[in-house]
Amino acid sequence: MRLVLLGAPGVGKGTQAKRMEQEYRVPQISTGDILRSAVKAGTSLGKEATSYMDRGELVPDETMLGLIRSRLDRPDCRDGFILDGYPRTVRQAAGLEALLAEMDLRLDAVLSLEADKALLVARLLARRVCRTCGADYNLISHPSELQGVCDLCGGEVVQRTDDNEETIHNRLEVYERQTAPLKDFYAGRGLLRAVDAQGGMEEVFTRVRLALGG
Ligand code: AMP
């Protein structure tokens, strides 16, 4: 199964992608997570990416194409993958298409997760994440049992630096301007399936499963 998950920041792409990874046994590839690890490790990729991420802008396409090429080359992608956060521009989508063609592969589907903007902003402001293991939390819908402490590893649960009000608004604008046009790109290829992402995690996952044919 080779899938792309599209959707605005806060729509729950990461949560659904992790759930799908368990169900379909193919890796979830989050370019945002890869970039955050690079920032934390202080690599040259991290140094390049950090100023874009802090402003809620996109990291340049050339850099992202190189990143996705080396990730898809790894053996765990042989039987499929779920792309979470890539592509984010039409150029990235065209690059992915060319890369897959080189590998003699094609996407099976592109799921577009949809939710109202007010819900996206509320979810992003309440979002928390474990600094150590990356587990996702939400102050409203899924708080950690002990405030600020990860249920899974005991690590510190914090807010992402780009989940502040100003950056959130910029990221949503960037999504509308640069990423939403991908819906037409993939609809034109007969791959797009829209999924209502409003509701609880399992409720949305049921819709995801239906969109993928049960
Ligand atoms: P995310 O965790 O998917 O919300 O991504 C966090 C940030 O990483 C974004 O706001 C961008 O700055 C950067 N980023 C992640 N994926 C991409 C991509 N495919 N293209 C450009 N920038 C990206």
Describe the structure.
This protein is an alpha/beta fold. 48% of the residues lie in helices and 15% in strands. It is built from 9 helices and 8 strands. A 5-stranded parallel beta sheet has the order 2-3-1-4-8. A hairpin with a 5-residue loop joins strand 5 and strand 6. Helix 4 packs parallel to helix 5 and helix 6 packs across helix 7. It is globular. The chain starts with a strand and ends with a helix. The mean pLDDT is 96. The site of adenosine monophosphate has 18 residues, from helix 2 and helix 3.
Secondary structure elements and their pairing?
Elements: E1 2-7, H1 13-24, E2 28-30, H2 31-41, H3 44-55, H4 61-72, E3 81-84, H5 90-102, E4 109-114, H6 117-126, E5 127-130, E6 136-138, E7 157-158, H7 165-179, H8 182-187, E8 192-196, H9 201-211
Parallel strand pairs: 1-3, 1-4, 2-3, 4-8
Antiparallel strand pairs: 5-6, 5-7
The structure holds adenosine monophosphate.
